[in-house]
Amino acid sequence: MNESVSPLGKDLIGLEHLSSEQILSILDTAEPFKEISERRIKKVPVLRGKTIVNLFFEASTRTRVSFEFAEKRLSADTVNISSSGSSVVKGETLVDTARNLEAMRIDMVVMRHGSSGAARFLAERIPSSVINAGDGQHEHPTQGLLDLLTIRDHRGPIAGLKVCIVGDVLHSRVARSNIFGLLKLGAEVAVCGPPTLLPVGIAELGVKVIARVEEAVEWADVLNVLRLQLERMHGGYVPSLREYNRIWGVSRARLDAVKKDVLVLHPGPMNRGVEIDSDVADGPHSVILNQVTNGVAVRMAVLYLLAGGQPERAEAAKQGGDS
Amino acid sequence: MSDKTLLKGGRVLDPSQKLDGTLDVLLADGLVVGVGKDLGAAEDARVIDCSGLLVTPGLIDVHVHLREPGQEHKETIASGARSAAAGGFTAICAMPNTDPAIDDPAAVAFVAAQGRRAGAARVYPLGCISVGRLGERLAPVGEMVDAGAVAITDDGSPIMNSGLMRLALEYAQTFGIPVADHPEDLSLVMEGQMNEGLVSTRLGLRGKPNAAEDIHIIRDILLAELTGGHIHLQHVSTRFGVDAIRQAKARGVHVTAEASPHHLVLTDEVVDGYRTEAKMNPPLRSAADVAAVRAGLADGSLDTIATDHAPHHYDEKEAAFADAPNGIVGLETAVGLILTRVVGEGVIDLATMVERMSCQPARAFRLPGGTLREGSVADVTVLDLGAEWIVDSAAFLSKSRNTPFDGWKLKGAPRYTIVGGALVWER
Q1: Active site residue B308
Q2: Inter-chain contact A121–B320, Cβ cutoff 8 Å?
Q3: N or C: less crowded end of chain B, CB within 10 Å?
């Protein structure tokens, strides 16, 4: 690959500070990469010789595996570090962990961390590219991107679409990346959920607040349904999971009550019967597994672009002609 | 032979006597012996030329954390006292949230002794309100006062139990000391890391609402009103809080309050980028709150400027935002910040600055000083209002460097700090 300046800059920390052009270029770059995963031999030499560390301070299956597939299908060398059994649990600070990795000469770090701002903190301290795989309650940019790609696949250009994020926005990094990305691309964005789980000042970000999920279904072209973490009930934010499902759950009856065809996304993992009913998750409105498939392509695109690849050369790079 | 110092030809500004003019100040044997025009120097007096400089009663900071005992890697009583002197302070009040906490007379005496040994700014210990700062039962207040405590507080931990606060406000009246409280309702703060608002929402950091502070301020005022005790509210940062204090004073409640330099010049926008050097408690608030704290300082609702000097080792602040401790150092930037950004922007005049940084802290905590009246302690601060300088944390005398003001251009700096007639610091 031609080593040139990445159109994204050194790191991918969040969608808030990307331009709409940068976001679109990631989505466009993901298009040719989709096909790699459909091949019999799912491997191209785009990132041959690159070393990538997947540094996960919080449990994750979907995101970690998705990144790992993306990296391996682009021929990068990868190492996985998770918090249990690593030096992290021995009390090493984030700075020291990062510096030690850097001392082994790596090219990129994909990091998930429980503290908001951790990805930026790391990015400011090491020369390697940092990809944020979720930092606390801040952002999860590749999830936001794969949501955008999935919406675009099914509903065409994002501009003008009405997208409502339903659920625990307060604690959700997925919500923030969606809000920032969708607004940049010209969507109308709303949030709907218990007021105890909506952050103060959310409307000032330029989103509409919808009180009841029935109204949200009526208003929206697309629903992005967030996971309700079970701790929230213990924290007293909602009285019970049953009540949450009654009042805020996305059910088939609620979708059938409107004439139009609403698209339903969920970042996973789902609590069936809590925020989303099984007949929705498994039904015709759902594109939840398409999201997962797109996740690999979007992450390939991000890895390729951060390594200095240019969007217009992605097709050639994939064929091995530009490696 | 007596030890005499003559401060010659400075502009002497002493609001306690409504003095403002080019005068000499003569100090002898640790006391002010005269202020007047062209005081003839006794032959054995040491003369300090103060022409072109501002001579004020020594500045007093009623809210600093010196970290000793227990966290001497952040600060010691000696380094903190030197840092204070370098910032123009002749006296400081040491918070008792050390390890162990200062909750018995032996610990109070230790802090006082370490302060005397430092030979820089005077160090006045505060004792805890409750044993172990646990908020459960009163510490031996009377014995601590006998050992040198000038006030009680569980600073850093608000007294959540209103019944205990009532007892403290009643009991402390025997000794004529204020009860200082860090006003914050912890049940509203939860995992809050910064001011609650648009910035916290964008950054995905949990917020602390103004109401957490407001409720506690109101509660403390009500209890002071109930008991007749003296409540001292620390580092007030909210617009409602300032207004509540203003109204309480109008009703005659015995309440005094602090404003911190950072709450007078910074908003929560500074936290953007997850800047841990802007993480403090109470947090930096909105522009409307800053305006209210400024107004409160100007009209006297807030009595004192206190730095809440809170040293932390550099690697403790070198962390993700939620994992970093609260607080910034403030002793060596306070004078420059207040002169440049508060007096310089016309919020208060110089005389009010001296009121808030010297006269009123002395009055509120019943400390010696805060005046250049004949017979008072010879604690004097001499300021150079024209000195332009750039904040360089590497040059701090404090052991810690955690400041959001690094690189700020300021105008006005301390030139001489005189404690008990001895020159303890000069620039």
Answers
A1: yes
A2: yes
A3: N
